Structures are given as structure tokens and as C-alpha cells.
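Please go through this protein, sequence plus C-alpha cells, and consider how the sequence yields the C-alpha cells. Keep your notes short.
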Amino acid sequence: MATTCYSPTFNLAASNRTNPRPGPVFLSSPKLLRRPFIVRCSSREPEPVFTSVRSFAPATVANLGPGFDFLGCAVDGIGDHVTLFVDPQVHPGEISIAEITGPTPSKLTRDPLWNCAGIAAIEVMKMLGIRKVGLSLTLEKGLPLGSGLGSSAASAAAAAVAVNEIFGGKLSQEELVLAGLKSEEKVSGYHADNVAPAIMGGFILIRSYEPLELLRLRFPEEAELFFVLVSPEFEAPTKKMRAALPGEVGMPHHVWNCSQAGALVAGVLTGDVEGLGKALSSDKIVEPRRAPLIPGMEAVKRAAIQAGAFGCTISGAGPTAVALIDSESKGEAIGKRMVEAFWAEGSLPASAVVRRLDRVGARLVGMSS
């Protein structure tokens, strides 16, 4: 059998970067210890260890205020599911999307070359060198499109994990992030602040894109942290919201945002939820450009702070607003005030949920031999 090697290609054009080139990936601990990421090169194609699997990937909050494109975290309880099974009706080495369910399935294509889940699944199949088996995939969307909760990343993460696990879990989380990045690159831009936490869980800092280097920021187990997620009935496509960003940033704002991002990381590592919230609320570069595009967002932020939230900002590209607090009951009260503000100031109906940090990331939730 011919040896199958897969080497990722980095295309950074979608993030206003040029001269893409292949490169290694590093995963670092918070102490910044680095180890090289080796792309697997196997002469033996793995066999399926299950006939079908079911996976889940959580919603994510990207940017976290001042951390545009380099900070994100996963939140529990909401996300996308993928069911994957070996299908003799599908051509060997290929994948078919059998069905898409959820709030607006008609808005998503079943062409795996253009569907987030399909793109990531294909990349994992390439990494594993799958040529003898065909697969069918069902995508269950639990996240609305264009919500600012990492909808595309959740689909990609769930699919990547499903393909990996049906063949015995040969690939690492970091390799699966690369597969998810190929999907994100095609549909919303080359940024890992959704797909990395969706796959790895917890808080993730992208220290570098070229080469890709990920830092896992460990939030203390004993600390209480709740995310108040308020989603209005309004779609904010990522590409449109990225187009609103400034082409240049002045030095004062650059220094300010860097200091707030540092404070945010310190808050995560020490479990200082109040400090974390204060830093999250302090972006002077991205949020000021995006908030006016979401009806009522500025009033929603004020309402959250007045109701006792430690901080509030736009989740990802929006329109979801995210506030931080250390109590679930307080979070529910804050969410109610934010929903009222979306209606009063933006004429937008909205819904609120209160969720904890998802520390696990994408995982298998069912299998059949």
C-alpha cells in the first residue's frame, strides 16, 4: 500500500494575511512550553472500529472583548450533533451528507465540499488516509446560523471528532483543530478562536497562526463562572461583521487592548471572574465598530452592567451578547434585563440562557459496533 501523508496548507488571506505557507503546529501550556506538532504519515489505512458514532460539539464565545481572533472559550449545554455511519452505498474514500436538521436546514447545503461539517470530515479522512470506506453524515444543528456562538465551528468540530473516533481516535485534538480550520477558512475566515475551543474545551489562546500555536488556559475548578448568552432574532454574518473592522489601529488603542487582553488572561488563570468581566468589557477596537450594527446592543451592555454583571460584550461577530457573573440565579436576572433592553432599544425579540464553561470540548456521545 502506498504511504499516505497529509501536510496542511495555511491560507491566511481571509484574515488579511499574505504569503501562506505550510508550517508546524505547536501546543503550549500556560507556561509556554512548546512541543512540535507532527503531521501523521501512515502506510496503513485504519479500519472502522464502530459502524456508527454520534458526537457533540459545544457553542463557543470568540474574542472575549479585547482578544479579537486569538481568544475564545467553550460553553456547555448548547451545540451541534453529528451522527456518522459506515455506508456501503457511498463511494469508498468519500462522505455523503444524508440529512440536516435544525432551525433553518434549508439554508445549509448538503454538498460536503461546501458544508462546514463536510469540509472538516473530508480533511480528517485525508489525514487518516481513508480510501476503502464510504461514510454518511447527519448534521443536527442546535445553534442558529450567524448567531455569534460559533455555529460553523461546532458543526466542523463535531464532524471532525466523529470521523476520527469511528476509526479509533488516531488523531490528536490539535490535528482536529487543523481540520476544523480548513472548514472555517472556507466559510467565515481563517480564525481558530471558535473551532479550537469547540474541539479542545475551556479557554484557548491562539498565540500564533503561522505556525499555528495554541495555549490552553486552565480556569480553576473551584471558581464559579456563568455566561449569560442573550441572542436576538437578528443575523450578523461573520464576513459582513469583519468587513466593518478598521484597517488601521492607533497606538493608544493598541496599547489599551493589549493590556486588557493580558488582564483577561490573568483573570482566567487565577479564577478572578470580576477581573475577567472587567477586561471583557473593555475592547476599544472591535466592539465600537460592530455594536452599532446590532440594534440595541449598546443599551443591552448597559443593562447587563447595571443589573450586576461583571462584564458584557459581543460574542464573536454577534449578534449574541455575553455577560459574565458568578451565580446562576444572578445570571438569570441579568439575562431578563438584557432581553428587555434588546426589545426596548432595538425592537428585537431575544432569548437568554445561562451556561457554565465547557471544559471538555467536542466528544463522542454514542456509538454502535
